[in-house]
Design brief:
The chain has about 240 residues and is mainly alpha-helical. It has helices spanning about 10-25, 40-45, 50-60, 85-95, 100-125, 125-145, 150-165, 170-175, 175-190, 200-210, 215-240; strands at about 35, 65-70, 75. It folds into two domains: about 10-80, Arc Repressor Mutant, subunit A; about 100-240, Four Helix Bundle (Hemerythrin (Met), subunit A), CATH 1.20.120.
């Protein structure tokens, strides 16, 4: 039984709430691939108006998650057709029972992209870019050693955003929201260490220093080690999860 969403909320907030709940239901497999539902079904399920459901379905259709079938209803599409780099889809998948598979895919993607982004940043970045990266690396170190988790997460996201931008590759830079969702998702679901090792913090400083020194090989290798460490931390966290 799905609890209805209250219509007392402002329409925009109501739409966002229904979108998140329906998107998560699909990501979690509560609405399975190939399953067809009607607008009437969804009105009843979420206790909201037809207009809210229609607007929600438009967004999900734009993300490749559902498709309207004339005189039949709305069909849930295979995951292969979803816009998988969409931050909302990443967030829903991280909140679902498929969290491990989503994180593994994201970390493998990061392993393929970010070391190369670091190498390019060392070859291409401007002085202002390297200075900003060094500053954030230093703040990240202080927040990590001080156990200031919320600050650490924000700075970690900013570090990787700056690095992707400094690569000079606009396609890499466009992945910043994906990386941000990965980092914040790990934290939100208890898959981030509460204390950060000196070696992990030092690696971020090493990347920034190598970029500043235009040492492409060192920047690449240090970033590779950061992602490998993230893989190791995830594996350890999964081993300690309650079944």
């Amino acid at each position: 039984m799905v609890c209805p969403v209250t219509e007392e909320r402002p329409l925009e907030t109501l739409h966002t709430q229904v979108l998140d709940r329906l998107g998560l239901a699909i990501a979690n497999g509560e609405l399975r691939e190939g399953e067809t539902v009607t607008i009437d079904d969804l009105e009843s399920r979420y206790g909201v108006s037809r207009s809210v459901i229609r607007e929600t379905l438009k967004v999900l259709e734009s993300k490749g998650m559902v498709a309207s079938r004339r005189r039949v209803g709305v069909a849930v599409l295979p995951v292969q057709q979803w816009t998988l780099y969409d931050p909302a889809i990443i967030r829903w998948r991280l909140a679902s029972s498929h969290r491990h598979a989503q994180l593994r895919s994201l970390v493998e993607l990061r392993l393929a992209i970010e070391p190369e982004a670091a190498r390019l940043a060392a070859e291409r970045s401007a002085v202002d870019d390297t200075s900003a990266l060094m500053s954030v690396a230093a703040q990240l170190w202080a927040a990590g050693r001080g156990g200031r988790m919320d600050e650490f997460i924000e700075l970690d996201i900013e570090f990787h955003r700056l690095l992707l931008a400094a690569s000079g590759n606009e396609m890499f830079a466009h992945l910043d929201s994906l990386i941000g969702e990965t980092i914040s998702g790990r934290a939100a679901h208890g898959l981030m260490p509460q204390t950060h090792s000196t070696s992990g913090l030092q690696l971020h400083v090493d990347v920034a220093s190598a970029v500043q020194a235009s040492n492409a090989a060192l920047a690449h290798d240090a970033m590779h080690e950061i992602i490998v460490l993230a893989m190791s931390e995830l594996s350890e966290a999964w081993e300690h999860e309650t079944p």
